[in-house]
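Retro notes (design track)

What went well: tokenization of the new backbones is finally stable.
What didn't: we kept losing track of which sequence belonged to which structure.
Fix going forward: every design gets posted as structure first, then sequence, in one message. First example under the new rule, 375 residues:
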């Protein structure tokens, strides 16, 4: 093991430990029961830049659209693939324009595809805080579908480090998209804007996906997801204003008020938060605050994922279910569920152990298992 690998692993463990401590300290946090009572397979998780920013805070391009565009412009300037006058003009736009998707669309058309490769090169070396990625992966293991507006493939990289058969999909492959939408690609991540590893396929405008938006079979399957799944927006800001997302999921779904989707947001101010909450209800989206600081985001996502995955409390996980005491506790848990009218399977799985990985989901064990897989 090299010194750099050892240091990176130590840094990841320190970061995970800090995040986990915050998570355990907030054990009294309340969640919407309508969300935590969902089965993982009832959800479709939409990942935005917040997920990447939490996992790799050292890469400015992952923090926001503005950060991404600024990094791309810097790369274009260094590689000398964009005229200095165009660089200056786009920098002014990035600094003042509100609709950065329009700016990004114009920039992508003018710049060299090499710029994105330059910006996102060596992502695997920059994963510092994998807590959110681990949480998303735990939901995928249990049937949650995932799509993203991000160019990066951090989740796929992390999943591969956990020996999961991750797949990065885009909308150009109709067969794969249909398989994913029908739930046949368990570890598939659909990138609706494309992926940085294929810069020529990056799309920011619906016109780039005419073959998709004009295909009745594909559109029916995709829009049916918005009607039948509960979308969980994680790390997203303006996703509902994203033209491609609108074209794929919103335009042909008239009655959105009766839907039940969820969005995790930063609570920056009381008035702004509650106005946003009321506005989103018109689109069938319940807005939920993860806290007043982005530092709360990873711990909140982990706790939420644990609730949805029906994991037991950390205290309960300390009991070895292979012992007679552990079996007794399982029996108590089963009787308690039956008393509450909850249907239970004949065989209760040992708490804290994933059926296909054999390692614990308890925060302290998560630190050990994750560090063993990273680096």
């Amino acid at each position: 093991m090299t010194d750099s690998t050892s240091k990176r692993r130590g840094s990841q463990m320190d970061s995970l430990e800090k995040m986990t401590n915050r998570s355990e300290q907030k054990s009294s946090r309340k969640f919407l029961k309508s969300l935590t009572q969902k089965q993982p397979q009832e959800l479709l998780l939409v990942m935005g830049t917040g997920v990447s920013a939490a996992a790799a805070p050292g890469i400015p391009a992952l923090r926001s659209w503005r950060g991404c565009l600024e990094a791309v412009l810097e790369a274009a300037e260094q590689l000398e693939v964009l005229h200095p006058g165009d660089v200056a003009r786009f920098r002014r736009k990035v600094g003042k324009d509100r609709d950065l998707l329009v700016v990004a669309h114009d920039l992508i058309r003018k710049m060299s595809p090499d710029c994105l490769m330059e910006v996102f090169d060596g992502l695997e070396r920059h994963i510092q805080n994998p807590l959110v990625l681990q949480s998303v992966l735990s939901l995928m293991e249990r049937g949650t579908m995932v799509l993203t507006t991000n160019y990066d493939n951090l989740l796929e990289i992390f999943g591969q480090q956990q020996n999961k058969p991750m797949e990065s999909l885009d909308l150009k492959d109709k067969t794969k998209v249909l398989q994913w939408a029908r739930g046949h690609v368990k570890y598939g991540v659909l990138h609706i804007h494309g992926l940085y590893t294929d810069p020529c396929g990056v799309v920011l405008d619906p016109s780039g996906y005419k073959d998709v938006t004009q295909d009745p079979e594909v559109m029916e399957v995709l829009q049916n997801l918005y009607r039948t799944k509960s979308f969980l927006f994680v790390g997203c800001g303006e996703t509902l204003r994203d033209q491609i997302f609108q074209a794929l999921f919103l335009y042909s779904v008239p009655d959105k008020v009766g839907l039940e989707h969820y969005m995790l947001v930063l609570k920056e101010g009381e008035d702004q938060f509650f106005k946003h909450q009321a506005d989103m209800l018109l689109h069938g989206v319940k807005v939920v605050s993860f806290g007043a600081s982005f530092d709360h985001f990873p711990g909140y996502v982990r706790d939420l994922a644990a609730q949805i995955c029906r994991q037991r409390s950390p205290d309960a996980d300390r009991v070895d279910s292979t012992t007679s005491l552990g079996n007794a506790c399982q029996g108590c848990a089963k009787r308690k569920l039956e008393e509450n009218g909850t249907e239970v399977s004949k065989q209760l799985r040992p708490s804290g152990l994933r059926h296909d990985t054999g390692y614990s989901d308890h925060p302290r064990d998560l630190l050990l298992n994750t560090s063993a897989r990273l680096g």
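Added context from the reviewer: The beta strands are 43-47, 145-148, 167-170, 188-191, 230-234, 261-266, 285-291.
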